Amino acid sequence: EAFYKRLPKIELHAHINGSISTESIEELLAKNQEKGRPQPDIEALRQWKAKVENGEQMTLDGCFDMFKLIHQLVDNSEAVAIVTRNVIREFAEDGVKFLELRSTPRDVPETGMTKRSYIEAVLSSIKQCKEEGSDITVRFLLTIDRGRDLQTAHETVQLAREYQATSDGVVVGIDFSGDPNKNDARQYIPVLQEARKSGLKLAIHVAEIPNVAENLSLVQLPPDRIGHGTFLQPEVGGSEELVETVGKLRTPIELCLTSNLVGQTVKSFDIHHFKYWYERGHPCVICTDDKGIFATSLSQEYQIAASTFNLTREQMWELSFGSIACIFADDETKDRLRNLWAQERSKLQ
Ligand code: 5GP
Prior knowledge:
- The chain is an alpha/beta fold and about 350 residues long.
- It has a single domain, classed as TIM Barrel.
- It contains 15 helices and 8 strands.
- It has helices spanning about 1-5, 20-35, 45-55, 60-75, 75-95, 115-130, 150-165, 190-195, 210-220, 240-250, 255-260, 275-280, 300-310, 315-325, 330-349; strands spanning about 10-15, 95-105, 135-145, 170-175, 200-205, 225-230, 255, 285.
- The chain has an 8-stranded parallel sheet with strand order 1-2-3-4-5-6-7-8.
- α9 links the parallel β5 and β6 (about 225-230).
- α5 (about 75-95) runs parallel beside α6 (about 115-130) and α9 packs parallel to α10.
- It binds guanosine-5'-monophosphate.
- The site of guanosine-5'-monophosphate has 17 residues, from β3.
């Protein structure tokens, strides 16, 4: 695993609150104590983490219960800033050189947090890490939660447009996620198209559960990247048309092995759809999704992919290098990263 930690990596699918580490949880609890704030009961989160670390499989619904708990803990701008700062440091420590974070702006009237102060807390931590000279470039996608209404989605796009213009290029796009059992994703398509018209990139969760009609509309958008894509193939409840559309467009897919196993949308690593898309030569990016609640790291995900599918270190290097083409950044940034990879390669031998 030391090799995969040293390997320079790209992380493109990381939800900030789902990436919260145990250390961050402790730090936030201590902060509450210090400030005499009420402590949320996070016993269920502790138990969940212990089970996942023990290799137990959970459910996708269970994941969403954990997000609710984490949101009770991360309910003020200072907490958002702390979690973001720690998440960036943790990814940097794991050998990630380019990181796209995503998060749902929330307001919590009781603590005075607004969607704007939420976004600014994230941006301030990204800036702080940069000023500290962290060896990692960070970008930010604003999340539209499909569990919330259209008006909220519309507001998120407005905020993304505003911060796209004022964040020094840090806000680059929109993530569409949230509980896939909630609402019909097709109703959000006009809002997503509106975002794209403004030059925002689109990373869209697609086919986390089988639903051919909905997924077809989403892949035809088309997104700039697909999150998960678990049920695209006909043999798992998708369709030929879905696979052909994604294949022809070569829409990169963000693949999160442990996440899908813990959420039980994939029953074992060896049948993970990474294999299908990788073997077709399709653009694939290995990601963590929620390293906190899935008790993983990006280097561990690389290690799992390599050992499950018998991939050589050379192939894993190519996978990481190939991910540069899928980032939401200009050619100059991509070239800079490719040069960095070339330098790191000589050190890896
Ligand atoms: P946050 O946006 O609060 O930083 O991160 C947690 C949120 O990300 C969750 O409430 C959920 O909306 C979204 N999320 C995290 N992981 C997943 C996932 O695996 N699938 C989907 N659909 N949404 C997720």
